[in-house]
Amino acid sequence: MFYHKEILDRIKEIMVRNKHTVAVAESVTSGHLQAAFSTATDASLFFQGGITAYNLGQKCRQLAIEPIHALECDCVSAAIAQQMAKSVTELFLSDYGIGITGYATPIPEKNVQKLFAHVSIVHKGKKLLSKKITPGKEKAFDAQVNFTNQVLDAFERVLRRK
Predict the structure, then answer these.
(1) Which residues fall within 8 angstroms of residue 2, CB to CB, at 6 or more apart?
(2) pLDDT in tens, 73-82
(3) How buried is residue 31: exposed, middle or buried, by Cβ count under 10 Å (0-12/13-18/19+)?
(4) Among residues 13, 65, 30, 25, which one has the least CA distance to residue 49?
(5) CA 77 to chain centre
(6) 19: how many CB neighbours lie within 10 A of its CB?
(7) C-alpha pair distances (Å), 15 with each of 72, 105, 131
(8) Which residue has the higher pLDDT, 13 or 137?
(9) What pLDDT is stored for residue 131 in this prediction?
(10) Nearest to residue 132, comparing CAs of 84, 83, 82, 94?
(11) 13: pLDDT strictly greater than 90
C-alpha cells in the first residue's frame, strides 16, 4: 500500500471518538490525500472530501486565494497553504482542514531545483500547523506519495496534541 494504513487507522479513531471531520485542499499531491483518507476504515464517518486545485486560477476561484500574492509566489507559500486549509473547511463544513501546495518536479524555468511543499492544518479557522516539507524522493509520483504520508503523520501528531 502507498499510504500509511496504521496512521490512517489512528487518525480515524481520534476523529470518530471526538466526532470531528476533515477536508483537504491539495495541489502538489494531486488527489493523493483524498485517496489516502478514502482508504481508511469507515472513512465516511470523518472524511468530508476534498478539492484538487492545480493552477492559480482555480485556487483563487475555488479556495479564495488572494491573486496578487499567488502570482508573486507561483501559488506556493505558507500563506497559500493556510488559506487553502481554511477555505476547504468552509466549503466542506469540516472541523479540520488541510492545505498543501508545492513542487513535485523541478521547474528550471522558475528556478525550482529542489522539491518542497508547504502544508497547513487548521481547526475551526485557527492555524494548528504550518510547515515546509521535502520529499527525499526525486520522481514525481514518489514525491507526491511521500508528501502525503508526511501530512498524514503531521495530522496525527496535531490530533494527539488536542
Answers:
(1) 32, 36, 145, 148
(2) 999 999 999 9
(3) middle
(4) 25
(5) 13
(6) 9
(7) 37, 33, 22
(8) 13
(9) 98
(10) 82
(11) yes
pTM of the full structure: 0.97
Q: How far is CA 123 from CA 35, 115, 146, in A?
A: 21, 27, 24
Residue 143 burial by CB count (10 A; 0-12/13-18/19+): exposed, middle or buried? buried
Which of 86, 161, 157 lies closest to 122 in space, CA to CA?
A: 86
Contact of 88 with 51, CB cutoff 8 Å: yes
The per-residue pLDDT for 136 is: 86
* Max intra-chain CA distance, the chain: 48
- 66: cell is 488572494
DSSP string, 128-142: EEEEEE--S--SHHH
